[in-house]
Amino acid sequence: MTQSSRRSPIRKLVWPTIATLIAFAILCSLGTWQLRRMTWKEALIAQVDSRLKDAPVAAPGPDMWKTLDLAEADYTPVTVSGSFLNDAEAHFYSALMQPRGPIGGVGWFVFTPLRTDDGWIVYVNRGFVPDAMKDASKRAAGQLPGRVTVTGLLRRPENPGQFQASPNLVTNQWFAREPARFGAASGFPADQVAPYSIDADATPNPGGLPQGGETTVSFSNNHLQYVVTWFGLALALLGVYGVFVYGVLKRKD
Question: How far is CA 170 from CA 78, 90, 164, 185, in A?
Answer without folding.
Answer: 32, 11, 18, 10
